[in-house]
Amino acid sequence: MSDSLGLYLHIPFCAHKCNYCDFLSSPMSYEARKRYVDALCEELRYVAKSCKERRVDTIFFGGGTPSILSSEAILQIMTTIYRNFSVSKDAEISIEANPGAFARETCETWAYAGINRLSMGLQSACNEELKLLGRIHSTEEFLESFLMAREIGFSNINVDLMCALPHQTPEKFYGTLETVASLSPEHLSVYNLIVEEGTLLAKWVEEGRDLGFPDEDTERQMYHETRRILAKHGYERYEISNYAKKGYECKHNLRYWERKDYLGVGIGAASLWEGKRFSNTVDFERYVSLLLEGESKDDFVLAKLRENEEVLTKEDCMAEFMFLGLRKIKGVSQEEFYKNFDIPMDSIYHDVIERHVKLSTLQIQGDALSLTEYGLDVSNSVMADFLFD
Amino acid sequence: MQKIDQKHIRNFCIVAHIDHGKSTLADRIIEKTGTLTEREMQEQVLDNMDLERERGITIKAQTVRVIYKAEDGEEYIFNLIDTPGHVDFNYEVSRALAACDGAILIVDAAQGIEAQTLANVYLALDHDLEVFPVINKIDLPSAEPERVKNEIEDVIGIEAQDAPMISAKNGLNIEQVLEAIVHKIPAPTGDANAPLAALIFDCLYDSYKGVIIFCRIREGSVKKGTRIRMMATGAEEEVVEVGYFGAGQFIPCEELSAGQVGYITASIKNVRDTMVGDTVTDANRPVAEPLPGYKKVNSMVYCGLYPADGAKYGDLRDALEKLQLNDASLQYEPETSLALGFGFRCGFLGLLHLEIIEERLEREYNLDLVTTAPGVIYKVYKTNGEMMELTNPSNLPDPSEIEYMEEPIVSAEIMVTTEYVGSIMKLCQERRGVYLGMEYIEGTRALIKYELPLNEIIYDFFDALKSRSRGYASFDYELKGYERSKLVKLDVLVNKEEVDALSFIVHADSAYERGRKMCEKLKDEIPRHLFEIPIQAAVGGKIIARETVKALRKDVLAKCYGGDISRKKKLLEKQKEGKKRMRQIGNVEIPQEAFMSVLKLDEDN
User: Fold this and answer.
1) In the predicted model, is pLDDT for residue A296 greater than 60?
2) Contact B576 A241 (CB under 8 A)
3) A337-355 pLDDT per residue, tens
4) Among candidates B534, B533, B528, B580, which has minimal Cα distance to B555?
């Protein structure tokens, strides 16, 4: 049986840049978007050449706002994929979509093209909070989009939410959680808002505006309560920030945490491929011209696109195994570690594990090593200790 | 080269209060004169090839030889021996003075005499130097040259009526200074045919030439091939080259003889063999007694210096050895700290000196250092009748073995305009000062005299002084002696473990206050861990203050960016790197800055 593969497609466009967003994305003209899609398809064709033996079982359209793509563009990309890759029948194919910003016809095209999972960036069910974040949709528009997607037949929907927003009280946040859970999406991602450098939000903070962020204790309380409230509705937290109904864990994201190969296509997209990590250029013009224009069309195009290549050593792999695997609530398996690296986890990490077990940040249950409740709160401090000097 | 007549040599330096224009005048003197005699100009052309290899060597312009054609038609050689860097410390001035026959005293026409003006001029007079004053900055609107002249005569007691009135900045009346040098500063004496006696006043380490000795030839002469002996260390070497100091370069010459100032190289590789203040003599024809050298100044302030990276211990040792070459007042000996590992206990003349050395180590030798809180030397009289000099608080004997302790006291002179007298006196009172008296100078300024414990002024006294006088106060002090005092060792416990490098000696009455502030400061410096960390201050095992660093509540990175693991990994690596820069005490990681916390205890006042 051939190895599996995940594809990540980066769509760096959006209708409007959100106040907290530091992803590689910006509003662009229809013409630019069209050229980009052509280039992306070209890259897919190149990439496919090295994946003949692989079976694609997850595809993820991320961004940006992939839902901004026209029906034609989606069909063009999906067709390119089906023609050049072997896509498994039950592949999970996700697209990120902005509520209120896609037409029924577009949504039908997604279903037609084989996309079977919708990830909707709601962020909050409170319109004031949405406004502050710079989102261009309202809770009502989300509801309409959500119901429409259900009608069309999407039976695997994720809703992205944010927590610890400016002026957000725990009660308001729990309100958002209840509202969304009552719609019964299959999956929920709940991220803490992080003020990233270079965003409008960061500028406000620098200017000394009082944004009324919840304090640390309140924020932690919200995090802990999220698990409880969502459990009531039948969701299980399976990763630091992700919740799903049984069987609906996001396969594509699990790929990242379980270090299975994936190829990122499009500008800035990151890949893990045969023991190497690399990412594509973030330069839009360079990306498009390398792929679409004339003589540079040779086998080295991919090499020219790719930057930051890092050949992972065994130590890198072990550290990644730990700090990525520990993001999962069930943690890492010692047996799995042994299978991967031919050496017991304990002989590499005995001291670190012992220390953190003593500090009650890690716990051992049978074969599994996982973060405790407190460990989840301070996961970075725990994970950093698994890196090598 | 023809022998130079002693009558045509003038060896001098410039003394001044900081900012009164010392360097500017030095620049003007170099500008208005030539660096070579007419005869030497030709020789230099001939020697050009030899000079090639000297290229690229730049030294700080500590000493420069210039040629001045005086009004009497004769050419004079001026050796201007600059006092390197800060004049805050007597020892640096003292070193330069030992090589001179006279000194120019610069006084700012607007500010008049300041504390360091006095300190430096007395030092020059102590060395039997001829001192003549120059009034600088007469171009300033606030200049009062006549008042300043009277002040010089009244306060210092040297003739000032015919002092050149100059503006070094604008080059005004510099000729008058040059003529005064010829007429007022005596020519050197000494017998060129007597056995060699040369005083080392500075040294420099050069990776090609080895140690370069800067010296003043008192008696006899030295040239290439002379076998020299360092009288203090007994080291002997054959001279490879002698020469004098051009502007920023070494210019080799045939011979140096009595009265001259220049350099000697003798492929001395071991820096320890050369000590500033030592006498160089001819090994085959030595003098009986070394020159008196100059007043050796003892270290007053001590602190521990540790390499941030323990593996750099050897580098730090080499660096200290080389620095000591041209800074004989720097003392160091190895010590070990439980918290900081291997390092050195170093002695300095004052806090500024400490800062300079620290900076030079970090900049010139690329070392990353951890410095412990500076302290002074305490005398500990033990019950068994022994007396020990304590430089490292960790070595304080058990209280039961101590009869009593003494701490160093300085007499301080603070010059300030009268409006700030009140606030300065308040400051001195706060620092356990004993008022000695006050003199008014010219009605608007006062010279306040206090006795102060040295350990009260080594941290931030100077800053406090400046801020309470809007920068107008100037300050000088000298060690007066030791006095019995009620002193205790304040220990700091982090997570119940005593951290030796954080201990310090403090007067019993301020122990509580300082202990409390220390804990507060450390609470801010030590990052939150995965557990709660108590920080305690203790005197004699009794806890007098406590703070708690709360356990880390949150440290999460919520999202992976479209599978961009490298970005996350970089964040974790940064976190780990940050930890590595800290010192591990038990389970607790203490940032290196924390060891300097004690210095900042008064900041919030």
Assistant:
1) no
2) no
3) 999 999 999 999 999 999 9
4) B528
Is the CB of residue A103 less than 8 Å away from at least one CB of chain B?
no
Q: How far apart are CA A145 and CA A107, in angstroms?
A: 9
**Dist CA B28 CA B136 (whole Å):** 12
Q: CB-CB: which of B554, B566, B572 is closest to A378?
A: B554
Interface of A with B in 338-377 (CB under 8 A): 356, 359, 361, 374, 376-377
Q: How do residues A20-64 score in pLDDT, each as one tens digit?
A: 887 777 788 888 899 999 999 999 999 998 888 899 999 999 988
pLDDT in tens, B380-399: 999 999 999 998 898 999 88
- Say yes or no for a CB contact (<8 Å) between A270 and B566: yes
Both structure tokens of B239:
């001279």
Residue A28 CA: distances (Å) to CA of A40, A90, A290, B142, B296? 16, 34, 19, 65, 76
ipTM: 0.86
User: Which candidate from B552, B563, B569 shows the least CB-CB separation from A262?
Assistant: B563
A161 in contact with B, Cβ within 8 Å: no
Report CA B48 to chain centroid distance, whole Å: 37
B88 pLDDT tier (thresholds 50, 70, 90): very low
Span between the terminal Cα atoms of chain A, in Å: 38
Judge contact between B406 and B484, C-beta under 8 A: yes
Angle between helices B421-430 and B461-468 (to 10 degrees): 150
Q: How far apart are CA A110 and CA A386, in angstroms?
A: 41
Asked if the Cβ–Cβ distance from A8 to B562 is below 8 Å, we say yes
Q: Do A270 and B573 touch (CB under 8 A)?
A: no
